[in-house]
Amino acid sequence: MIHLLRLFVFAVFVCLAIVAQIRRDTKSASLFIAFVLLVSFAAGISRRESWPFATWALVSGRGLEHVVNYDFEVSDASGRWQRLDPRVWQPASDNEVLDGWLAWHLDDLRSDPSKRAEFFRFVLDRAEKARLRVRRGEEAGVNGWLLRWMAAPYAFQRRALWTSPQNVPSASFTAVRLIRETWQVEARYRNEAAIQREVIGEYRAR
Amino acid sequence: MNTALADFFFRPVHAANLVMMRTICALSALWIVLSRPDLPSLLAFPDVMWASVPHAHKIAYLLLFPLGVERALYAALIVLLLLVLAGVAAPVTCLLSGLLLYHFAPIETLMWTPDPMLRGLTLPTLGMVIVACAPAPGWRDRWIRDRSWVLPLFQVIVAEVYWFAGIAKVRNAGLDWLSSSSLTHLILSYDQIHGIATGSTPLGYRLAAHPSLCSFVGAGGLALELAFPLVLVSRRARVLFVPAVLAMHLGIALLMNIVFLEAGFVLVFVDWPALRRRVWGGA
What is the pLDDT of residues B121-170, one digit of tens each? Predict the structure, then answer.
């Protein structure tokens, strides 16, 4: 219901803008200005988003001391595992998929083998398509085909991994596994290897 | 509306500044849209990923059409933004662009969150609807009095970005934000998650080695955000804070690999005719 209310807020915003554009009088303008100020301030102060009226709470919490990170690894028939390039998810960002959707829905995947298989097949398929692109000398992701290096990055994004054809195998990927990594930020700062890794799901193509 | 507010919102503005506001909104939106040329294809991600999205979220953003229609609408959005840039039928093209941006922006995040803040299309969406209220001045027009309030209203929205960001830090982290450990942990954790901590020592790791410098940077950033609304009323603040904020975004990108895609919107505070006079001279 709250989301339909947001649609209503946006609809009022647009309607008042149209009225202000057509009538061109101070009263309509004042009404529109008052509405925009009221809603934008309410969103910011209450910290309740009514997008596009945002809270703008940009990276504002205390720094993390302990990190939990999810990612995927893929392998070809030789069994050599390698980290999935984050651009495989494009036009989704790795942040939305890994830190967002996956972290929130991991229990669903673990409890339902059919969902898990569907999702892992999807990941393997995207990884394979990206591998073929990289082997052809193209980018692993699809975002840059128009603007190339001028394409906008994502606000939050992991480092690109498959930057040359040598970074991916010549044979098809046949398996994918989901890993969870945990670490203490300070400990990893002192020792890059201070990471605990756990494989929490694996899928092999038949 | 009281006199001070009326003076602020209903003062004449230079046509060039209004045209630049429209251009910044359209260019920024176009940059994001052309950088995600296949955005509608996210709707074809597997059912397992979309199943958890409440239908109300899709209704709220009118994401109710088949993929083919969405792709056609996305192409229409690109054409509309190009028309806005060219100044063709600006009020109508601006409004339609704003509506389509509202429709498409949440696709990127909807599987996780219905709020696509920080993904680059929030200010363009607001800006397109607001600038649709304005007359359509050309580059040769000078002062505008009719519906000139469009520019100061949008400037308030942009100022809110930084002010609310500062307020959020005070509310979420309080005085801890000023401690060296808070910013150090933020920098280190983002470096580590984003994978820029591997290989050569990243800039963030080097900064983290100097706790007092971290504390200073954190306090400076917070002070800048909280004081940013001064740009609405002070020319001196605009000269000082606009470059400072751009430098802050550059620093955050280098230190944490976090890119604020709407950073360019601070350019709506630039007085373009005055800048032109300063650089090239003339009246």
Answer: 999 999 999 999 988 776 666 888 888 999 999 999 999 999 999 999 99
Q: What is the pLDDT of residue B197?
A: 60
Residues 114..173 of A with a Cβ closer than 8 Å to B: which? 115, 118-119, 122, 142-147, 150-159, 161
A-chain residue closest to B176, CA distance: A62
**Inter-chain touch A40–B157, beta carbons under 8 Å:** yes
Sign of CA dihedral A57, A60, A65, A70: positive
How far is A147 from A150, CA to CA, in rounded Å?
5
Q: How far apart are CA B8 and CA B233, in angstroms?
A: 8
Six token digits for residue A49: 């988003």
CB B138 within 8 A of CB B22: no
Those residues with Cβ within 8 angstroms of residue A197's Cβ, 6 or more apart along the chain or in another chain: A179, A180, A181
Name which of A7, A75, A13 is nearest A40 in CA terms. Answer: A13
**Averaged over A68-73, what is the pLDDT?**
95
Burial of residue B55, with CB atoms counted within 10 A of its CB: 0-12 exposed, 13-18 middle, 19 or more buried: exposed
Q: Which two tokens stand for residue B24?
A: 């910044």
ipTM exceeding 0.90, yes/no: yes
Q: Kindly report the backbone phi and psi dihedral angles of residue B44, in degrees, each rounded to the nearest multiple of 5, phi listed first.
A: -95, 10
**Up-side HSE of residue A84: CA atoms within 13 Å toward CB?**
29
Residues of A in contact with B18 (CB under 8 A): none
Q: Are A178 and A200 in contact (CB under 8 A)?
A: yes
Distance CA(B28)–CA(B131), nearest Å, equals 14
Encode pLDDT of A84-121 as tens digits.
999 999 999 999 999 999 999 999 888 999 999 999 99
pTM of the model: 0.94
Please give the Cα distance from A18 to B67 (Å, whole number): 29
A33/B117 Cβ within 8 A: no
Cβ–Cβ of A63/B187 closer than 8 Å? yes
Select from A53, A62, A192 the Cβ nearest to the Cβ of B173: A62
Please report, for chain A, how many H helices and E strands are present, in that order. 6, 4
pLDDT (0 to 100) of residue B175:
82
User: Does the beta carbon of B37 lie under 8 angstroms from any beta carbon of chain A?
Assistant: yes
8-state DSSP, A99 = I
Q: Measured between alpha carbons, how far is residue B234 from residues B28, B49, B148, B227, B228 in Å? A: 26, 49, 19, 11, 10
Structure tokens at B149: 């309030």
Query: Which two structure tokens, joined as six digits, stand for A61?
Result: 């919490």
Distance of alpha carbon B245 from alpha carbon B238, whole angstroms: 10
CB proximity under 8 Å: A 70-89 to B: none
